[in-house]
Amino acid sequence: MPAMLEKLVDQDFGKISGQIERSISGYVSKSSAKGLVVGLSGGLDSSVVLKLAANALLPSRVLGIVMPSDTTPKEDVDHAVKLAASFGVRYHVIDINPLLEKYAEVLPEDKKARGNLMARIRMNILYYYANINGYIVAGTSDKSELQIGYFTKFGDGAADILPIAGLYKTQVRALARHLGIPNEIVEKKSSPRLWLDHLAEQEIGMDYEVMDPILYLLVDRKMKPKAAAKRLGLPVSQVNRVKGMIETSLHKRSMPVAVSSINNSSF
Ligand SMILES: Nc1ncnc2c1ncn2[C@@H]1O[C@H](COP(=O)(O)OP(=O)(O)OC[C@H]2O[C@@H]([n+]3cccc(C(=O)O)c3)[C@H](O)[C@@H]2O)[C@@H](O)[C@H]1O
Ligand SMILES: Nc1ncnc2c1ncn2[C@@H]1O[C@H](COP(=O)(O)OP(=O)(O)OP(=O)(O)O)[C@@H](O)[C@H]1O
Ligand SMILES: [Mg+2]
C-alpha cells in the first residue's frame, strides 16, 4: 500500500468513532431532536452512519429508511434490513418505483436526471419522517464525495448533520471494519445505484485509493498540484483533474448565491 494511503487509514478508529458519537449525541440533544433518520442503501457509508448513530443514541431513537428502486440490487435491500435489525434499529422499506413512474409520465427521459431524481425522492421521504417524528436527517456523505461534489445537490447532499464528513472513503472503509460492519458491506464496491451497473470509481474515473491521498494533500495540507504530484509520484495532470473537480463543485458545498445587490442597511 502506498505510504500516504497507509498513513490515512492507519488511525485510532476507536477514538475517532467515540468523537463522532459524542458529536452526534451532543448535536441531537442541543437541537432538541427526538432522534435521527437515515437512508439505508446497504452500502458502506449509510451502514457506518447507522452504526455510529445507534451507538450515539438509543437504537430506538434511530430510524432507517430503505428505499429501493428498479436499479437497486435485491442483496442491497437484504444487507440494509439485516443490519438495521441486528442493531435493533426500527426501519421501513419504501419502494420508490411508483413515484419514479409518476414522474416519468410528465417528464422527458434522461438517465442522469432520473438518477438524481431518485436521490431527491429519497431526500423528500427522509424529511417527511423527520417532520412527523421530530427527528433530524443524518446525511452519509464522506469527505471524498463532498470534496469532489460526488453527490446529488439537494438529494443525498441534503441533510441536517454529516457524521462522516471528516473521513475520506478509504478511512470510512477502515472505520467500518473497526465497527464490525459485515464484510459483505465493507467489501462492496461503492455505488450510487442510480442506474444499472453504476459504479462510483468508474464514473469518477479514479479509484478512491488513488484519489484520497491527492485530496488529502490538496485540501488538508494545502499543497500545490505540482508538489502533491511529486510527493505521490503521480502525473501532475491527474492531480489537476482532482483539483478541477474540487473547484467546479464548490457551489454544492455552499449556500445558494444571493445574486441580488439590494442593501437594506440604509433604511
Ligand atoms: N456553478 C454553479 N453554481 C450554482 N449551481 C450550479 C452550478 N453548476 C451547476 N449547478 C447546479 O447543479 C446542478 C448539477 O448538480 P446535480 O443535480 O447534483 O447533478 P450532477 O452533479 O450532474 O450529478 C450528480 C453526480 O453525483 C453522483 N451521485 C449522486 C448521488 C449519490 C452518489 C453516491 O455516491 O451515492 C453520487 C451521480 O452519479 C452524479 O455523477 C445543475 O443542474 C445546476 O442546477
Ligand atoms: N436504496 C436506497 N435506500 C435508502 N437510501 C439510499 C438508497 N440509495 C441511496 N441511499 C441514500 O443515499 C446515500 C448516498 O448513497 P451512496 O451510494 O453514496 O452511499 P452508500 O451506499 O451508503 O455507500 P457507498 O458510497 O460506498 O456506495 C446513501 O448513503 C443513503 O443514505
Ligand atoms: Mg452506495
Give structural notes.
The chain is α/β, with parallel strands linked by helices and 267 residues long. It has a domain at 13-196: Rossmann fold (3-Layer(aba) Sandwich). The protein has 13 helices and four strands. The protein has helices at residues 3-9, 13-30, 44-56, 74-87, 97-106, 111-133, 143-148, 169-179, 183-186, 200-204, 208-220, 225-232, 236-248, and strands at residues 35-39, 62-66, 90-93, 135-137. Strands 3-2-1-4 form a four-stranded parallel β-sheet, sandwiched between helices. Helix 12 packs across helix 13 (236-248). It starts with a helix and ends in a 19-residue tail after the last helix. Residues 19-256 form the NAD/GMP synthase domain. This is NH(3)-dependent NAD(+) synthetase. It is an enzyme of class 6 (ligase).
Average pLDDT taken over every residue:
97
Terminal CA distance reads: 62 Å
> What is the element string, with H for helices and E for strands?
HHEHEHEHHEHHHHHHH
CATH architecture classification name of the domain at 13-196: 3-Layer(aba) Sandwich
Strand percent estimate = 5-15%
Show unreliable segments: none
Can you tell me the CATH topology of the domain at 13-196? Rossmann fold
Classification by helices and strands: alpha/beta
Radius of gyration over C-alpha positions, nearest whole angstrom: 19 Å
Main beta sheet strand tally, sense and closure: 4 strands, parallel
Ions, cofactors and other bound molecules:
nicotinic acid adenine dinucleotide, adenosine-5'-triphosphate, magnesium ion
Q: Give the overall shape, derived from the CA principal axes.
A: globular
Roughly what percent helix? 40-55%
CATH class of the domain at 13-196 reads Alpha Beta
How do the strands of the widest beta sheet line up side by side? 3-2-1-4
In DSSP terms, counting alpha (H) and pi (I) runs of 4 or more, how many helices? 13
